[in-house]
Every structure is written in C-alpha cells, then in structure tokens.
Predict the 3D structure of the following.
Amino acid sequence: MIFPRSTLIVACVLFSVLQASAQGLVGIQNYSTDFSQDQPWIWSISGRGGYDHLDYSSPDYDSFQSTYVQGSVGASFTEADQITPWSTVLDLGAVQYLEDTADYDQTFYNARVAFNISHQMSQRLRFSDNFYTTYGSQPNIAMGGTTSLFNGQYLYGFNNFNVSYAWSQRFSTTTSYTVEGIRYDDQIISASEDRLSHLVAQQFSYAVSQRTSLNVEYRYRTTQFQNSSGRDFSSQFALAGVDHAWSERFSGSFRAGAEFFKSERINNTAPYAEVAMDYAVARRTQARWFGSVAFDGAELQNYDSRQTLRTGITLSHQFTKKFGANAGLQYAYSIFDGSGAVVDVTEHTLMLSAGVNYQILENLAVDASYNYSTLMSDDAVREFQRNNVSLGLTASF
C-alpha cells in the first residue's frame, strides 16, 4: 500500500517549488530536490504490514477489506556541486493483499524515480532539468494527474527543462518546456484517462530586493487523449506573481491570473492561481502548504470541462533525536461542467494522514501510520470512504 508515500510526494513538490522559484510553480508539479548540501548514497530496505478497507457507497463498485504486506528497497544521492548539482531518488516495491481485492489482482507494484540536475553555464546562464516518474496504484489528489477512485496500476511521468538568463542583477528570464503523461493498465480506464500534455512557458522576473522578486509569465499547454477522440484541449495562461523570503526559514511563491481553456467542445475563461509556502518553525519542525485553482484533465469522460481547487498541508516534528511525528491534509473541490443531458457535478475529496516514527538503532527505524480518504459527490455512484493503518520497519545504510 503506498498511501503513506502521498505525504512524501506532496512534501517533495512543495520544497522543490520554493527552491526553484525562478520557474514559477509550473502547476505545483516540480519534483526538484534541495541542493544545499551533499548527501552520500543512502540505501534502505523496508517491510510493512497493515489493514486496508475501501467502502463504496454504491454497489456499482466493489468494496474490499484486507490485510496486506509490503516490501521495498530505495536509494538516494545528492551532489551539491556549485556548478553542476544533481540528485536522484529510486524506490521499488510490491504490495501483497491477503484477501480478495475485487476487480483487481491481489499483488500491486510501485516504483518511483526522480532525477534532478542543474548546470551553471556562466554567471548569467543556467540550465536545469527535473524528471519524475511513478508506477503505482493509489490515487494522489495533490499530483492532480490521477483519477480520484482506486483504478488499478498506472504509469505517471513528468519532465521539466528550463533555461534561465540574468540580463542584469535584477532582471532575468526563464524559458521552460514540460511534458507530462499518464497511462492506466486497465483497458476500460485507459480508454478515457490516458493522455499526454505539453507545456511551454516564458517568465520575466524583476528582483525588487534580495528577498523579493516580481514575475509575469505566459504559458501554453496542449493535452491529447491517447485512446478517445473529441476530448483534446489546450490552455493559455496570463499570470503575475511574487516570490518572497521572509527569512531563511520562511519563504513562499504565488502566481495568479487567467486561464483561457479551449477544447473540441467549449471555450472558457476562468481564474487561475497557485501558491506554496515553506516554514521551518524550528530546526526540528517543518510546515509546508500549497494551493492551486485550475482546469483539470482527469475524469472528464462526458463532461465539457472540470475546474478544481486543490490544497494541502504537511507538518513534521522531531520531538527527540529518536522520536518524530508527521501529519498531512489534502483537499480537492471539483466542478464538472456538463451540457445537454450531462448534469453538472460537484465533488469534495479529502485525504488525511498521521504517523509516528522511532529510531531503534542508528540505521534501524520503526514507524506507524494511519490514512483516511473520502470522496463526496453529487454522483452518489462515485462516493467512497477508505481507512488504512500500517506498521513498518526500515533499515538504512
């Protein structure tokens, strides 16, 4: 089960956004890493056991409840070179459910690969690339690419390449290209959800001070559905924003403007906004928050468009050198716009997580977590509640 990883993904997203403010938030999906210090190769092996209960309100979907076991291996590395810093993260694992999981096999596989690199060509010119891909089975409403329902295994990928040039000490520009896609193993889901998006962006930034920069940005995105016709769409964005560091511990980034949405069905214009903040309350405490309002490509099916507000917060605190705790909240509010016989639908999706961890030995830690998710919809067929509890042991070296 990879629900505990959802909080980690959100944290990676938020931290990367604030580390790469020259790029803007790029849809809050930049999985960069922190290049502030070297981190040698760290390898880990973990085992986990737990209980998962997914309960749909409608008999049209099959509920299930099952205990499960999970194993995974991971590795991470960071080279904080002043000219060419880079980092990589790799996680591989499998989950075995011990009871029947309805429409799907009892074994699920998950993998996550991230690679980030930046190169300072000169004092003015910098290139960077951020790559992330995951193969999993659990929905992630913060990521925004997946369906809200449990729909089996999917492959999601994201890559952002950008070039920044400082024309003066205060004025700089950033040009970026992003490709993003998702593919489901299930043929029925694949027919309506598989898609590929391309986004190009041009940002102009002016540093008002060492802590504050003002930005204007234009973006163009196009999305093609791979297995269905008549649903492709494109968007243009006109945005303005600010990046600001209140202190070494507190920084944030904000963009707002308009999104001009055009598909084979409708043309529409709506507000667009994205925000992320990172606050190190103390050396042992971290708080991160993100939010976005935008058109959404997931689960369109027969709807003309979908506009979604997404927000989330993660908190972590290390009480002692050995004992720590974390908590997270993700929420999405969606409006599906229909026409003709297709009625508009409003949905609320909520994910809560909480966990504790204890360092038994220098390289051995135990953790326990609880995750809750629910979807409330005008379409009662889609409503569900899910509870997951687990206990894990991780060895690192």
